[in-house]
Write a structure and sequence with these properties.
The chain has five helices and no strands. By secondary structure, the chain is mainly α. The protein has one domain: Up-down Bundle (Four Helix Bundle (Hemerythrin (Met), subunit A)), CATH 1.20.120.80. Helix 3 packs antiparallel against helix 4.
Length: 202
């Protein structure tokens, strides 16, 4: 007589889950909350420091150039299109579309990193010149760190997707990656307005 008895039949359970049913989704959401808090601190610090100056930027400091920064924010917003396609394809377990979409998004992320280097140049102020320069640089560097890490992750993940060893759980990873991508790109919109536009408006 067997010492084991069946208490549940799990053969019908899905092999991959998405959204709040996935543990990785909750982990990604945790990163979003933590890193979003850091970016919010940058935003609050910027406007707090602004109150201590009669002119912003301070006198004899050039305003930031807008061309590259505007291209950057537009590219980030547009990149959500192919990432949305990746997200939906992952939920359909459509490997071919996920692969193509991730290649496109990874290339866009690399371009964003290059543009970010020019954005730092276009601030037209050193990080140690004054409080204005420090908070502008701190904001860009903080977001740049997240952008660089996301780019590295996208390169590695896309490379893995192009191998023959893709499992069903990688579809969930692609969907979770989309969640973080939306956060990274959309969070830059108010920060772009703050760093690059408010010096012309305040």
């Amino acid at each position: 007589m067997s010492d084991y008895r069946v208490v549940a039949n799990v053969t019908e359970l899905p092999s991959v889950t998405f959204g709040h049913r996935s543990l990785m989704w909750w982990g990604t959401l945790g990163f979003v909350v933590i890193e979003g808090s850091t970016l919010f601190i940058c935003l609050v610090s910027y406007f707090y420091l602004r109150r201590n100056f009669s002119a912003w930027p301070p006198e004899h400091v050039l305003r930031p150039a807008l061309t590259v920064a505007t291209v950057q924010v537009a590219l980030m917003l547009l990149s959500n299109g192919p990432m949305y396609v990746v997200d939906r394809a992952a939920r359909r377990l459509d490997l071919r579309t996920v692969r193509i979409g991730m290649v496109v998004c990874t290339l866009l992320a690399v371009v964003m990193c290059v543009l970010r280097a020019y954005e730092l140049r276009d601030l037209n102020v050193r990080w140690d010149s004054n409080a204005y320069g420090s908070i502008a640089w701190a904001t860009l560097v903080t977001h740049s760190t997240l952008l660089l890490l996301q780019t590295v992750e996208s390169v590695v993940f896309t490379g893995f997707l192009l191998t023959r060893h893709v499992e069903h759980r990688q579809y969930s990873d692609a969907s979770d990656n989309a969640l973080y991508w939306y956060f990274l790109t959309l969070a830059w919109v108010p920060l772009y307005v703050m760093v690059f536009l408010t010096p012309y408006l305040m």
